[in-house]
């Protein structure tokens, strides 16, 4: 049987190197490419046609969630596309639900054991969905609260963080640095904030947020 062809994308070179060495211990895995950001991931997938992409969430230039969206594109089906397993330290709701909504097939934390990682890769490759035990409770809670539906109507926790930064007069670059997300991601969050608050610009968004009680005066 042919080995499972893998692409590993993580901006921490030491972790990436260690992960690739670990994967080499499994006879049914073959790493066909490695990258440090989402832009490199897109090129690697185009060039190597892997079966599974192991993808970090927090990366420069293009983060993991943006990368999943780009890989999935506007296709109505994932047939012929690689399976995507997020491998991250983040338990942040926005990262978790953002990755799932974008089309990731699994979400595993970096504290997983080698056996858990190998099993997750094989399960994702086989067409199953995989969630780390540490985040399963978050998903179940979201389902019970219908959070996925509510997120479409209100600001997400990450959007609230960005909004607070806007209220403090911070630039896109400053917000990107403070929240450890790309400037493109900041711009996306700002666009969503303006749409949800029906504001024409950042200043109006902050003003409306204060009027609605979303932000207190101490945030401005």
Characterise the protein shown here:
The chain is α/β, with parallel strands linked by helices and 220 residues long. It folds into two domains: 4-147, Response regulator (Rossmann fold, 3-Layer(aba) Sandwich); 154-219, Winged helix-like DNA-binding domain superfamily/Winged helix DNA-binding domain (Arc Repressor Mutant, subunit A). It is built from eleven helices and six strands. The protein has helices at 13-23, 38-48, 64-72, 93-102, 114-125, 133-144, 147-151, 157-167, 172-179, 183-197, 202-211; strands at 4-9, 29-35, 52-55, 83-88, 106-109, 130-131. Strands 2-1-3-4-5-6 form a six-stranded parallel beta sheet, with helices on both faces. Helix 4 (93-102) links the parallel strand 4 and strand 5 (106-109). Helix 9 packs across helix 10 (183-197). It is elongated, with a radius of gyration of 19 Å. The model is unreliable at 143-153 (pLDDT under 50).
Shape: elongated
CATH fold-level label of the largest domain: Rossmann fold
What is the highest CATH level, the class of the largest domain?
Alpha Beta
What is the oligomeric state here?
single chain
Head-to-tail CA distance between termini: 61 Å
CATH-defined superfamily of the largest domain: Response regulator
Outline:
The chain has helices at residues 13-23, 38-48, 64-72, 93-102, 114-125, 133-144, 147-151, 157-167, 172-179, 183-197, 202-211, and strands at 4-9, 29-35, 52-55, 83-88, 106-109, 130-131. It is α/β, with parallel strands linked by helices and 220 residues long.
Q: Layout of SSEs?
A:
Blueprint: E1 4-9, H1 13-23, E2 29-35, H2 38-48, E3 52-55, H3 64-72, E4 83-88, H4 93-102, E5 106-109, H5 114-125, E6 130-131, H6 133-144, H7 147-151, H8 157-167, H9 172-179, H10 183-197, H11 202-211
Parallel strand pairs: 1-2, 1-3, 3-4, 4-5, 5-6
């Amino acid at each position: 049987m042919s080995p499972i062809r893998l692409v590993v994308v993580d901006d921490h070179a030491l972790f990436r190197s260690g992960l690739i060495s670990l994967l080499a211990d499994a006879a049914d895995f073959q790493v066909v490419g490695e990258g440090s950001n989402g832009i490199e991931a897109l090129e690697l997938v185009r060039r190597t046609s892997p079966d599974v992409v192991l993808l970090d969430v927090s990366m420069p230039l293009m983060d993991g969630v943006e990368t999943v969206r780009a890989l999935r594109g506007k296709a109505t089906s994932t047939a012929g596309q690689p399976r995507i397993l997020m491998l991250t330290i983040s338990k942040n709701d926005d990262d978790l639900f953002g990755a799932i909504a974008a089309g990731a097939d699994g979400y595993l934390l970096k504290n997983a054991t080698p056996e858990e990682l190998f099993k997750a890769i094989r399960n994702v490759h086989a067409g199953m969905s995989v969630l780390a035990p540490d985040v399963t409770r978050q998903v179940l809670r979201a389902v019970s609260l219908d959070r996925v539906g509510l997120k479409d109507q209100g600001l997400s926790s990450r959007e609230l963080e960005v909004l607070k930064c806007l209220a403090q007069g911070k630039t896109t670059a400053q917000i990107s640095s403070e929240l450890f997300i790309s400037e493109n991601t900041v711009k996306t969050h700002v666009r969503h904030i303006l749409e949800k608050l029906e504001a024409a610009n950042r200043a109006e968004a902050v003003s409306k947020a204060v009027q609605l009680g979303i932000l207190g005066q101490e945030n401005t």
